[in-house]
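Protein Entry — a single chain follows
Next Lines — sequence and tokenised fold
***
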Amino acid sequence: MAGVQKEFLISTASNLGVEDGSMPNANTRRNGNHHPNLWSDDFIQSLSSQYGDSLYHKHRETLINEVHKIFSNKEEEFGLLQRLWFVDIVQCLGIDGYFQEEIKTTLDYTYKCWNQNIFGDLNMTALGFRMLRLNRYDVSSDVFQKFKGEKGQFFGFGPNQEYTKLASMLNLYKASELDFPGEIILKEAKVFTSTCLQEAMKEHGETIENKNPLLMEIEYILKNPWKCRIPRWETWNFIQIFKQQNRNEWLANDIYKMSNTYRQKLLEVAILDFNILQAQHQYELKLISTWWKHSTAISLDFFRHRHVEFYFWWACSLFETEFSASRIGFTKLATSLSLIDDIYDTFGTIDELKPFTTALIRWDISIIENLPNYMKIAFKFAYEIHKEIASEAETKHGPIVHKYIQNCWESFILSYFQEAKWIASNCTPNFEEYVSNGTTSSGMRVLMMHSLILMNTTLSDKILEQLDIPSSKFQHLVSLITRLVDDIEDFEDEKARGETASSIECYMKDNQGSTKEDALNYITSRVDICVQELNKEFLKPSGIPNCCRRLYFNAGMRGVFFLFKDSDGITHSHQKEICDAIMKVLMEPIIA
């Protein structure tokens, strides 16, 4: 990756300069000192994929039909365990959309048998529970009580063979990640299995280098918990794991007993589908890069230029071809919010921000005639994006969307101004006041609502009301998680810039004598509760379209956790893991 970065990530601060007089003297202002855009337009435009050709689309259809035939012709050979494995693997490989009939038939039958004591061992129980809950069937975690010993250990992992025990242990761990509030048994199962799996990783450390597929999966799952496993990144990783499964001696004991021919056929579908989608994403990325190259905001060097990272965030979660408009619209809007964020947090003065706030709420450019040129550029940049999205959304859904756009936009801008006033007055509000404002200033309500209305999905006024504040638990939880996770990772950077209002500072102010560690522990526990609640909201039956729920859960929660896993992956997008992921998901086709 170092070579790729050296050769291709060639944008530097020097070619982000501004014309004389475009900005006031930067010495009088706070500045985030953000690193420049990493992805040059020349590099983006050089991306080329053969998989956009219709011949590859036709070949994908042929392979999918072959899998349908294999599966339908082997009903007697494929028992329930094998069929559950099929559901699991096609979902992990990102190709489940092509096998909905097989998935529904298997899960309906599994649910029918769920209480008939045919799930004798822990592995099959964990797999069945996970597949049913993941696909919104009503199952209770109490089913694991019979596998729990008096000392907190779990038993029933099947034959005393290393592969079988580890595979069963991994299934229980993954089942425990789908916990709802109050499910103590799953919390206990997660603690037990994570400890055992970590010990296995230490014991077999050298084996990982030999590409043992089960240990590869364990390593990936432990490093990337359920809450941050964004779909396209998960697909890429599981394809690498699956590629090893036809070549490894451990599979002589494979508990799923699937033929290499069948595995290979699924792998072919997954790789081809991934590369075809990647070709589509590259086409969109080129459009975005051209838009950015010719935008006025490129002249402003004080804010984060992250259009590629924003596109990656949404493409990893809302990846299907039909959601192209939502991905592109999100990327443009997120780029404009990044600019506005850095104006309010660092670059703007409070005297400038007062009329700027009014102008943004009213979309009235006459208000900022006497303001610095950088604000005029920022206003026009944001306004053009707003007009473009609003026009396209009205074409899709009619005029009902305007009230949602305006309401979320106005509250968002006002929340930014509130934070700017706290910064200007060196004020640290109380914790709940900060969090109430911070859930709005996280920007997730604006981003989610605009992404929703750009989707090719029928959205009635009733559904939009269910998904918007104040009635939407989805929206509240996603916004709260984003705010708290962002604070955990950005606390030191923001403090260095003179920003005194963060959830950590506010908690310590409210709880005199508490330490930074106390605040982090409290906030982390609150985030964990939010994740459990969002799990339940996402996985329970609902009248909200699945694509909308997946947007909130995959992009809104898992995308945030992925990007903020080790640090703020947007602000510090030059970190190796983020750059690697962008290259693998968007730019480098998978070789069979």
Notes: The chain has 25 helices and no strands. Confidence is low (pLDDT under 50) at residues 1-27, 249-253. The radius of gyration is 25 Å.
